Please model this.
Amino acid sequence: MASQIAESRTSDRPVLRRAVDGPVGEWVGLAVRLALATVWGWAGLAKISDPAEAAQAVRAYEILPESLVKPVGYGLPFLELALALLLVIGLGVRAVAVISALLLLTFIGGISSAWARGISIDCGCFGGGGAVDASKTEYLQEILRDCGFLLLAAWLLFRPRTRLSADAWLAA
Model:
């Protein structure tokens, strides 16, 4: 009887919903997980080779007190690389998605703040950063890009079960 009720509930759901909840969704989740891992890996690797430049990018936002600029600038690439590694192996996917979303919201807030205050900077998201000519700012594109990355994190937050993940292996 219970299996008939469960089967009935499953067959009542729209086909797309069943696909997203099932194996297709797990493969989509893998693609999303690897895409977000690529973003974090690219960002971290771009910054880790020149920590002073990463700190300068943080300083350019004029948000943090000077005492926090170096710790954030030097530490951010390591956090990004750790997130990338955890996403690649699929360990703690939901927790990584939460941290990713919070970090992306922070970046969106920082870029929005610089834009609203009329500060002309390159975001430094993928290396570089710092003051630029006002004609070289790309705030809207950077915010939209980060919103796209935020959607990837949201997918993993609500659907952390993905194929080829350590989480799935540990749950088995």
